[in-house]
């Protein structure tokens, strides 16, 4: 079999299963008695084992199998859950991730895990876990003496007991049917399907053990039990099932001592049959809950995987369509043809809907980034000997895939800083009257055309005096400037390039290490970061990001004969002001805007364009904002609002001041996009 065609699918699904293992193991550590969580981890591990074996990655399959043995012992209550055991299992997941990443990079997925396998074996052997040889012996005994088989104990809930009891009252037989497959059976799931098909024709299946999903995944040894309600006799059923190839024995036992409970009568044909099929779409394992009719649980999978490169191509094609749409709108406005205007308006509406669909296709929940952090916090808090709880809020918030790909590393920096330098040690926290366990809250939410990601900790906060002192020492600010800074501006000095320090034993303790990189990455995405900190109480880092980087709404303005675009997300409002109202403060032109002093920035001066000799009586100003800072951009005139396609200036023009990109307008003219953040800074 040529496995290359399945490689991409294998990698994607392997990552999903390993992430699921990580999440459920963290949950298990908090709830060690919840065996349902163990089953979830086991299911992911078992599926990964099967996939890797099919693809020929035996090292992954073997390691997963060893991990599976430990999980099986836990879920069968043969060993208990402890941090030491979970550490080993976590290490196994880490190694599996490394092996999968190696395959993705073109490697073989091989890794020396002998020590880890030995540790897993010790966990398994050190407890009362049935060895492989003992299981083989038990299987051989079952094959020789079927009448002596010990039927696995089945537990019935109230509704199942009611169904069985009332069916017996109506003259039906209720059987527990134990089927044993041959030890050398190659296609166990297929044999299970054939047995189910026979039994369903004879009656109604109420329950199975193991579950249907486990049977479909071949997650059982050689035997399984089916509870059947039927009019047929045991001998007839046994003869039918024994005709299935590779069935070794069939042991049928009538169900007794089940009395019907009071309540709504349940007809036998209301019992939800539990079945499996060749596609594995059936997931039910027991009858429906009391008082509900059975439902058809066969459902069509309506999700497909699409390569991100295809979405990029689709977006590029749509961007061309947006440019042509603008051109058509321009032509229609010149020709004043009613039919053309009507067609263009309809095309605008349809393409607007298409744009929403395409952008939504590219949207990914920030959960894909957030889900790596609980594991990281667990590991670092143990290394730092701190007690830290991570709360995640709004993980379902969606962002453009291109933003998601870039935001992970900055958030890792912020969380590591909060863990290492924000949250105090348990002893320090107790001395300050705080709970021993520190809390870090990671939240995401939409607001307008932006997504906000906030990281808040209840730690020591930022020592602003030390920050200011260090900034002065390194020449980041002057004494004159330092005297005018607000507390918030002082806190944000730790984001400045050059603030990073090797002095990691002070109160500041490297709080700024790597944060200048965080700032530059976020600003390259068209976002910005702010800090709010109270010494002794904690810090709040807020990151604002655009929803998408591809198509944005802008205000088009004239500067001489050129057209520039200012992103609407940065604009507060536009205004026409009298030149006489412009004031001067500290050699800077300013205006009074709604009670606030706002500095003016003449874009013609910034872009070194020829300015008018005589001052006009009125000035057109665009008021823009970045965080709590504002500026007024002076332009010649306003053109209007438009949606444009953001294009990069390329590698040769990366460093052009205050220009973040360009776009092609409907008339074919290129308009440069103004970077308001750079101007305000």
Number of domains: 5
Overall, the morphology is: elongated
Distance between the termini: 59 Å
Share of residues in helices: 40-55%
Description:
- This protein has 681 residues and is an alpha+beta fold.
- It has five domains: 4-129, Four Helix Bundle (Hemerythrin (Met), subunit A) (Up-down Bundle); 136-270, Histidine kinase CheA-like, P2 response regulator-binding domain (Alpha-Beta Plaits, 2-Layer Sandwich), CATH 3.30.70.1110; 308-362; 365-546, Histidine kinase-like ATPase, C-terminal domain (Heat Shock Protein 90); 551-680, OB fold (Dihydrolipoamide Acetyltransferase, E2P) (Beta Barrel), CATH 2.40.50.
- A six-stranded mixed beta sheet has the order 14-18-19-17-16-15. A five-stranded mixed beta sheet has the order 6-8-9-11-10. It has a five-stranded mixed beta sheet with strand order 20-12-13-22-21.
- Helix 1 packs antiparallel against helix 2 (35-55) and helix 15 runs antiparallel to helix 20 (515-524).
List keywords for this structure.
six-stranded mixed beta sheet, Alpha-Beta Plaits, 5 domains, five-stranded mixed beta sheet, Four Helix Bundle (Hemerythrin (Met), subunit A), 681 residues
Short description:
With 681 residues, the chain is of the alpha+beta class. α3 (58-75) packs parallel to α5 and α11 runs antiparallel to α12.
Task: List strands and helices in order, with pairings.
Elements: H1 7-30, H2 35-55, H3 58-75, H4 83-104, H5 114-125, H6 132-144, H7 158-169, E1 173-181, H8 188-202, E2 203-209, H9 212-216, E3 223-230, H10 234-242, E4 247-254, H11 308-335, H12 338-361, E5 363-365, H13 367-370, H14 373-383, E6 388-393, E7 398-400, H15 401-422, H16 426-431, E8 438-447, E9 450-457, H17 464-473, H18 479-482, H19 487-491, H20 515-524, E10 528-534, E11 538-546, E12 551-559, E13 562-567, E14 571-578, E15 583-585, E16 588-593, E17 596-602, H21 603-606, E18 618-626, E19 629-635, E20 637-645, E21 659-664, E22 670-674, H22 676-680
Parallel strand pairs: 6-8, 13-22, 17-19
Antiparallel strand pairs: 1-3, 1-4, 2-3, 5-7, 8-9, 9-11, 10-11, 12-13, 12-20, 14-18, 15-16, 16-17, 18-19, 21-22
Helix pairs in contact: 1-2, 1-4, 2-3, 3-4, 3-5, 4-5, 11-12, 14-15, 15-20
């Amino acid at each position: 079999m040529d496995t290359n065609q399945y490689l991409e699918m294998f990698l994607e699904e392997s990552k999903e299963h390993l992430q699921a293992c990580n999440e459920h193991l963290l949950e298990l550590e908090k709830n060690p008695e919840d065996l349902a969580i163990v089953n979830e981890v086991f299911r992911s591990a078992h599926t990964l084992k099967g996939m890797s074996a099919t693809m020929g990655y035996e090292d992954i399959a073997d390691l997963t199998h060893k991990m599976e043995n430990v999980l099986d012992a836990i879920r069968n209550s043969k060993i208990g859950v402890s941090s030491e055991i979970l550490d080993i299992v976590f290490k196994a997941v880490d190694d599996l991730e490394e092996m999968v990443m190696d395959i993705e990079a073109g490697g073989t997925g091989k890794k020396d895990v002998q020590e880890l396998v030995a540790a897993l074996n010790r966990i398994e052997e050190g407890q009362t876990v049935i060895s492989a040889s003992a299981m083989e012996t038990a299987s051989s005994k079952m094959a020789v003496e079927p009448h002596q088989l010990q039927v696995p104990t089945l537990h019935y809930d109230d509704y199942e007991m009611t169904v069985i009891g009332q069916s017996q009252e109506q003259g039906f037989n209720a059987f527990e049917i134990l089927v044993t497959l041959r030890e050398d059976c190659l296609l166990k799931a297929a044999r299970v399907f054939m047995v189910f098909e026979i039994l369903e024709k004879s009656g109604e299946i109420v329950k199975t053990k193991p579950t249907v999903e486990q049977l479909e995944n071949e997650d059982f040894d050689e035997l399984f039990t089916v509870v059947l309600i039927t009019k047929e006799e045991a001998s007839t059923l046994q003869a039918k099932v024994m005709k299935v190839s590779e069935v070794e024995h069939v042991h049928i036992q009538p169900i007794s001592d089940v009395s019907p409970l009071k309540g709504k009568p349940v007809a036998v044909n209301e019992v939800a049959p539990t079945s499996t099929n060749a596609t594995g779409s059936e997931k039910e394992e027991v009858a429906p809950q009391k008082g509900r009719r059975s439902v058809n649980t066969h459902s069509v999978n309506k999700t497909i995987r699409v390569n991100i490169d295809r979405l990029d191509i689709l977006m590029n094609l749509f961007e061309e369509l947006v440019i042509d749409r603008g051109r058509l709108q321009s032509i229609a406005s010149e020709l004043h043809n009613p039919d053309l205007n009507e067609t263009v308006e309809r095309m605008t509406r349809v393409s607007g809907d298409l744009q929403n669909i395409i952008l939504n296709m590219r949207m990914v929940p920030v959960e894909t980034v957030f889900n790596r952090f609980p594991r990281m916090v667990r590991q670092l808090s143990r290394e730092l000997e701190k007690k830290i709880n991570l709360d995640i809020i709004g993980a379902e918030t969606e962002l453009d895939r291109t933003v998601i790909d870039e935001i992970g590393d900055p958030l890792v920096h912020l969380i590591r800083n909060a863990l290492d330098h924000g949250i105090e040690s348990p002893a320090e926290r107790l001395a300050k009257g705080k709970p021993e366990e520190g809390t870090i809250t990671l939240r995401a939410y939409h607001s307008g055309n932006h997504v906000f990601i906030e990281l808040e900790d209840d730690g020591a906060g930022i020592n602003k005096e030390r920050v200011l002192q260090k900034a002065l020492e390194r020449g980041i600010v002057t004494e004159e400037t330092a005297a005018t800074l607000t507390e918030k501006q002082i806190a944000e000095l730790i984001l400045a390039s050059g603030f990073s320090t090797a002095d990691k034993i002070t109160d500041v303790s490297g709080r700024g290490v790597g944060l200048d990189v965080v700032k530059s990455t976020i600003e390259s995405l068209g976002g910005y970061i702010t800090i709010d900190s109270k010494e002794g109480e904690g810090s709040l880092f807020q990151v604002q990001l655009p929803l998408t980087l591809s198509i944005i709404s802008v205000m088009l303005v004239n500067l001489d004969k050129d057209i520039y675009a200012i992103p609407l997300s940065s604009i507060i409002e536009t205004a026409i002001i009298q030149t006489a109202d412009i004031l001067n403060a500290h050699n800077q032109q300013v205006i009074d805007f709604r009670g606030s002093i706002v500095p003016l920035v003449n874009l013609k001066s910034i872009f070194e364009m020829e300015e008018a000799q005589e001052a006009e009586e009125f000035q057109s100003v665009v008021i823009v904002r970045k965080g709590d800072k504002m500026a007024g951009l002076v332009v010649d005139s306003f053109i209007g609002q438009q949606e444009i396609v953001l294009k990069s200036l390329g590698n040769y023009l990366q460093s052009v001041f205050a220009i973040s990109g360009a776009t092609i307008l409907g008339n074919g003219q290129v308009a440069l996009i103004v970077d308001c953040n750079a101007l305000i800074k």
